[in-house]
């Protein structure tokens, strides 16, 4: 879903007129549904092969899943965020990026820093190759799965001097945009 959100946001910034006037209304829902269906199909195949104790087929299915993740899901997310980062840096200094864009950018950035190492580590484990200890990788994965509320809170209360706002107000400010 981060890939779909990143691409959608990139298109809305790069082609705003097309995005508002010509983009099919249900395109986002369709893309997300297709991504979910692909993910469910891959997970179902991997799970069934691994539960049947087909060691070699399980290993190939896991490798295929990691390759699919790196070649289909990660590149569009990275490319669209780099494009938007450059656009924001080169854009008008008067117009500050909206909070929602900052939240999505930070979410993807922290996913790449803390979430991707687990996938890389799992992929390399299939070839009996270890780059870093499993404790570090699992710590990164735990940070990745718990950092989003902090991002929402910090961005939601951003530019509010000495204001201690509740988490609910922070979420509301972020998602109002």
TrEMBL record:
First-listed, main subcellular location of the protein, grouped into a coarse class? membrane
Keyword Transmembrane: yes or no? yes
Q: Which SUPFAM superfamilies match?
A: Family A G protein-coupled receptor-like (SSF81321)
Family, similarity comment = Belongs to the G-protein coupled receptor 1 family. Mas subfamily.
Q: Name one GO molecular function term.
A: G protein-coupled receptor activity
Q: Where in the cell is it found?
A: Cell membrane
Q: Name all G-protein coupled receptors family 1 profile domain ranges.
A: 1-152
What InterPro entries does this protein's entry cite?
Answer: GPCR_Rhodpsn (IPR000276), GPCR_Rhodpsn_7TM (IPR017452), MRGPCRFAMILY (IPR026234)
Query: Where would you find the membrane-spanning parts of this chain?
Result: 27-46, 66-88, 100-124, 136-155
Query: Superkingdom of the source?
Result: Eukaryota
The entry's keywords: Cell membrane, G-protein coupled receptor, Membrane, Receptor, Transducer, Transmembrane, Transmembrane helix
- Cellular component GO terms, alphabetically? plasma membrane
Provenance organism: Fulmarus glacialis
Membrane topology is: Multi-pass membrane protein
The identity of this protein, by name, is Mas-related G-protein coupled receptor member H
